[in-house]
Amino acid sequence: MKIMKFGGTSVGKPERMHQVKDLITRDNERKIIVLSALSGTTNALVGIGEALAEGKKDLAKERIDTLHAHYQEFYKALLESEAGRKKAEKIIKEHFEFLNIILKISFNEAINRDILAQGELLSTKLFYTLLQEKDIPAIFLPALEYMSIDENSEPEVAKISDRLKAILKNYDKDALFITQGYICKNHRNEVDNLKRGGSDYTASLIGAAIKASVVEIWTDIDGMHNNDPRVVDKTRPIAQLSFDEAAELAYFGAKILHPASIWPAQTYNIPVKLLNTMQPEAPGTTITAEETGKGVKAIAAKDGIIAVKIKSSRMLLAYGFLRKVFEIFEKYKTPIDMITTSEVAVSVTIDDDTHLKEIIMELEKFGNTEIDYKQTIVCVAGNMIAENTGMIKEVVVALQDFPVRMVSYGGSRNNVSILVDTKYKNEALQRLNDELFQW
Ligand code: ADP
Ligand code: ASP
Ligand code: MG
């Protein structure tokens, strides 16, 4: 059984949804289809939640109405039969009635997550209606019945697997299953989600849960490129990546994949393919356990990074000092991305500033702290790049005109990370591209 996940742009226009229908019916292999919300919808839902959080009900209403109008247009172009259009009208009415009711009650975080879930519920129901209109047999698989996270927001892999297998057992003759990406239930049994871009994670978790033959991530580009195509000229798709390389790139900002979406597939050695809905014959990127080709394969960048320096001539040489520093971050559940040390200071980076104030207060017990906001981690990833001494020279040459705040090299054979002020990001990515990929 295989998993095919289609992102927001792949379902964002009626003609694209038709294309998805054709892609999933090209062969008879059993498959689970994971859909994102139509492109723009989750952003719009975030906007509705923000307006409500600020008490701006009129603005929220305006945003609901704009989104509603979009769906009114969408379904008319998607469906042609009277019966199909009636069904779609009912679906849209139901979900927008829900949003309008929320305007009347007091807002909280749980309600916000309910709002965010509407996008994937709408896209899957409309797509399912399209399949019905075309007499394509399929089973609707509500994600809220099997996808769950625990109190630390971690997916409950064993439970997800048990529930999913139990459901699928009832449909052993059926070939097509349609489900929502992104949404899940939390430990309080409330509607929750796997964070922005989380549909990739859903696909990989389902793949792991049922030991799928492959997880296909269908999007609007022909695979993982060697650099961010939104920022850099002359990028190219990479044919093959190892799980470790792909995970590193996803974690360090390659938007094409949700940062956590590789580990479930990697755990069960399930290949992941990145494919282009608009260009289905393009080879895309295949991600497997195999390590191929030496050298730099790609560059990614992660914004919104905060660097924290703790200076303490007295403490740093003492054993146990780093443990004490790390324990403070652990206490506030704040992961550290990069770390560099000197005799008198240690610098770490974080991307979650929820508890920054408390963390700094506690760190001040050990020494002086300095904080740099608006930093970007640039990650150069590849296979065995630590063995290639010339590569470091090329990185240094490429970045010679910018102040580099931190460098992390040697932590793994697969990457070099560089921290720069975000204002230098675009130029740094382009210069690295020109220096490291000569084509
Ligand atoms: P989807 O809606 O299908 O999940 P996303 O927008 O989340 O699609 O991801 C695809 C986008 O990721 C591409 O359109 C591209 O602009 C962006 N992107 C950023 N870095 C890379 C990269 N290294 N390779 C490919 N795409 C990338
Ligand atoms: N719709 C969600 C988002 O926009 C999930 C996804 O597209 O993967 O973040
Ligand atoms: Mg995405």
From TrEMBL:
Q: Does the keyword Ribonucleoprotein apply?
A: no
Q: Which InterPro entries match?
A: AceGlu_kinase-like_sf, ACT-like_dom_sf, ACT_Aspartokinase, Asp/Glu/Uridylate_kinase, Asp_kin_monofn, Asp_kinase, AsparK_Bifunc_asparK/hSer_DH, Aspartate_kinase_CS
Give the metabolic or biological pathway.
Amino-acid biosynthesis; L-lysine biosynthesis via DAP pathway; (S)-tetrahydrodipicolinate from L-aspartate: step 1/4; Amino-acid biosynthesis; L-methionine biosynthesis via de novo pathway; L-homoserine from L-aspartate: step 1/3; Amino-acid biosynthesis; L-threonine biosynthesis; L-threonine from L-aspartate: step 1/5
The protein depicted here goes by the name: Aspartokinase
Q: Which family does it belong to?
A: Belongs to the aspartokinase family.
Q: Which UniProt keywords apply?
A: Amino-acid biosynthesis, ATP-binding, Kinase, Nucleotide-binding, Transferase
Where along this sequence does the record place binding of substrate?
T42, E120
Swiss-Prot/TrEMBL catalytic activity: L-aspartate + ATP = 4-phospho-L-aspartate + ADP
Q: What is its EC number?
A: 2.7.2.4
Q: What residues does the Aspartate/glutamate/uridylate kinase domain cover?
A: 2-276
Any one Gene Ontology MF annotation carried by this entry is: ATP binding
Which GO terms of type biological process are on file? Answer: homoserine biosynthetic process; lysine biosynthetic process via diaminopimelate; threonine biosynthetic process
Q: What class of enzyme is it?
A: transferase
Q: Which GO terms describe its cellular component?
A: cytosol
- Annotated ranges, domain Aspartokinase ACT: 378-435
Q: Which residues bind ATP?
A: K5, F6, G7, G8, T219, D220, R230
